[in-house]
Design goal:
This protein is α+β, with helices and mostly antiparallel strands. Helices cover about 30% and strands about 15% of the residues. The structure holds zinc ion.
Length: about 675
């Protein structure tokens, strides 16, 4: 039985000066930065709507599932054995960084505690926090693999060890616990760990401590957030030092030989060049994206405009030339790496779920720091496509890699690119990452500044927060991501001042007509950047409505994306669509489908039977099937001579893929002959 199942049942405790009520990212100094995130309790998502239902599913399905799996996988047992002094008795279960899976689940539970935890999850949190505390060495060091298997290698394998990576996740879990006032089991552990890190790692050249960085960036964001929580400036100094040392030629990245593969280049670890000297996004996608999130955190808290500009330059490269239509990153399975500019093969897309989450987190930090709408655009793209599609309709199965084209004959015997979502993975980084993001997702939607409030991602729910001159309660209703109308009612306003209410207008919406009304009267709203902004003396009962048309867009890629040249993709609103083999006529292979975009594409509420209730709109289109089965692999004949048959195509949202038996699908569909002579466009 669940306790406190009402989403608003547990108010956050009174602020105590330790950041209680803050969400996952809470810039303090704001020497750089213009937007303040709202506190975690200031937004409540409504059930019966997309985001609220997803967060609810995260609480009732995903999080309990993750709890079960970190227990079953042995990740908790590894810590238990160390706590009992039996660490070396048996081999470590799972990857050597499995502690981080446990910490991510604890972090998710802490954020979720705002809405009340089930007895099962609460019991897990209490017991596991106690185990973690007992496993920690008296000097504050904590890592079950090194303590249990090879204590002589502690801090000797920074290349593969993931020790700082795991430490970062522990600190993030502790931060979440303290900000939500939930179970405080990790507070003392975090303090001891921080003491150990400060005693171990160099803060400046010549101080005699260990000069090194982690092969897997992550600790940077965690250290900055723990600094934001505690005010301990040494943690900010350590985070800054980690950023500054990375890529320095005189800083070694030692390997023990026990943990990793020697073939990986330094760029894989993002240790090939200093961050400030790079202009290219490269290496292991998750590492690069976590690093960049930490770089922005350090830049914001140290008022380092040069460092912020360096991160934005890498963003320009990544989002200008190396990003999938679905917002995914990583076009190579080998090294899980980003790939070259325009190297974006659909059928070999790796696009790891953790990279998508890291992209969301990096873009949020850049949005807070700069106010530039392009960062909100990318959050929306990656959220509603790669992140939403990484988890099953039921909330208990996951994609690790998120390909854009799964062939009919695809062999998915391993975990590398399975046909369907799996309940868990040997390398289990992604599922608990989804759980912690969705448990705190309301912390990424709205900001405020001196002028008023900004809604970046539409949602249905309530907001209670400060505005210039007082406080306001809002009731927000949106049809997003299916429809383009967002309705904001001022249910209470104590301010007598004029303030701005702004709503992000995504790039797809700006192509159609936008209608803005206040109390049902059309108003002239200013369009700044890509925000509709209405400034007035808001009163209780006022009603702002922003209505956008949601056109179906047929997209082409930049000319240089050879892999999908002459192909088309379909997007409606923020949702990228795909064709699944399950919706094709019998005998038609997915590989032989052609889209005729000269004929209209229509949204339809008649969605495939198995997706009803999950998908609100499918898209119907005209196409052809070609006879692609015969003929040699290579020939000098014109492919245009192939026989074709007319075909009705059904597109379903990419996020909903893989829930039916066939599973083969593709986002990019070849254009009908004669439609390919188009001018190059910007990368979609
Ligand atoms: Zn992952």
């Amino acid at each position: 039985m669940e306790r406190g199942s009402n989403p608003a049942s547990r108010a956050l405790p009174e602020a105590s000066g330790r950041g209680v009520g803050d969400g996952p990212v809470q810039p303090t100094g704001m020497a750089i930065g213009c937007l303040h995130p709202l506190g975690l309790g200031e937004i409540v998502l409504a059930e019966g709507h997309e985001l609220g239902d997803w967060q609810r599913r995260n609480s009732t399905k995903t999080l309990p599932h993750c709890v079960d799996r970190v227990v079953a996988s042995g990740a908790v047992r590894n810590l238990e054995r160390v706590a009992q002094g039996r660490g070396g008795e048996v081999p470590h279960e799972g990857w050597h960084f499995s502690d981080s899976d446990v910490y991510k689940v604890l972090e998710a539970a802490a954020w979720d505690g705002v809405r009340g935890l089930s007895a099962e999850v609460e019991g897990f949190v209490e017991e596991t926090a106690a185990v973690v505390a007992r496993a920690q060495r008296p000097d504050g060091y904590l890592n079950s693999w090194f303590q249990g298997q090879h204590p002589e290698l502690v801090w000797k394998d920074l290349r593969w060890g993931h020790e700082l990576y795991c430490a970062g996740h522990l600190l993030q879990a502790a931060t979440a616990e303290q900000r939500t006032g939930s179970h405080p089991g990790l507070a003392d552990v975090a303090e001891r760990l921080v003491g150990h890190l400060l005693a171990t790692f160099s803060l400046e050249d010549g101080d005699g401590r260990l000069v090194g960085v982690c092969g897997h960036p992550e600790v940077e964001t965690a250290l900055v957030e723990y600094y934001r929580l505690t005010g301990d400036v040494r943690l900010l100094a350590l985070a800054k030092r980690q950023v500054d040392l990375r890529g320095r030629a005189d800083v070694a990245l030692p390997a023990s030989g026990l943990l990793g593969d020697a073939r990986f280049p330094l760029s894989y670890f993002l240790h090939h060049l200093p961050v400030r000297e790079r202009t290219s996004a490269t290496g292991h996608a998750v590492r690069e994206l976590y690093l960049q999130a930490g770089v922005v955190d350090v830049a914001v808290e140290t008022a380092d405009l040069e460092l912020l500009a360096a991160s934005e330059a890498i963003w320009d490269d990544l989002f200008g030339t190396k990003t999938y239509l679905t917002g995914g990153h990583g076009s190579r399975h080998r090294d899980e790496s980003i790939g070259d500019a325009y190297e974006l093969p659909s059928d070999r897309a790796y696009a790891e779920t953790c990279a998508a989450i890291a992209s969301f987190q990096w873009n949020w930090r850049l949005l807070l720091a700069t106010g530039r709408a392009r960062y909100g655009e990318e959050m929306e793209r990656v959220f509603w496509n790669t992140i939403a599609g990484a988890i099953s309709r039921e909330g208990t199965e996951f994609f690790y890699s998120n390909t854009l084209h799964l062939r009919t004959s695809h062999d998915s015997a391993d975990e590398d690119s399975p046909r369907r979502r799996l309940p868990w993975y040997g390398c289990a980084c992604c599922p608990p990452n989804l759980a912690r993001l969705m448990a705190s997702i309301q912390g990424y939607l709205v900001t405020r500044d001196a002028s008023g409030l900004q809604v970046h991602l539409p949602f249905s729910g309530t907001v209670s927060t400060e505005v210039p001159g007082g406080n306001v309660d809002l009731a927000v209703r949106t049809g997003h991501p299916w429809e383009g109308t967002t309705d904001i009612e001022v249910t209470r306003c104590s301010s007598g001042e004029r303030w701005d209410l702004s709503l992000h207008l995504p790039e797809w919406a700006r192509r159609g007509a936008t209608r803005v009304t206040v109390n049902e009267e059309p108003v002239e709203a200013s369009l700044e950047g890509s925000y509709v902004r209405v400034a007035k003396h808001w009163r209780t009962g006022d009603h702002l409505q922003v209505s956008d048309s949601v056109p179906i867009r047929v997209l082409r890629s930049h000319w240089r994306v050879d892999a999908v040249r002459d192909c088309l993709a379909v997007q409606r609103g923020p949702l990228v669509y795909c064709v699944e083999a399950d919706d094709l006529e019998e005998g038609v292979a997915l590989e032989d489908v052609v889209l005729d975009a000269t004929r209209p594409l229509e949204p339809t509420v008649v969605v495939p039977e198995d997706l009803q209730g999950y998908v609100k709109l499918a898209i119907s289109a005209s196409g052809e099937s070609v006879d692609g089965s015969a003929g040699p692999l290579y020939d000098d004949k014109d492919a245009g001579q192939m026989r074709t048959e007319p075909l009705v195509l059904t597109f379903v949202p990419y996020f909903a893929r893989g829930h039916r038996p066939e599973a083969a699908m593709r986002v990019w569909v070849p254009a009908r002959q004669g439609q390919s002579e188009t001018h190059p466009t910007e990368l979609v």
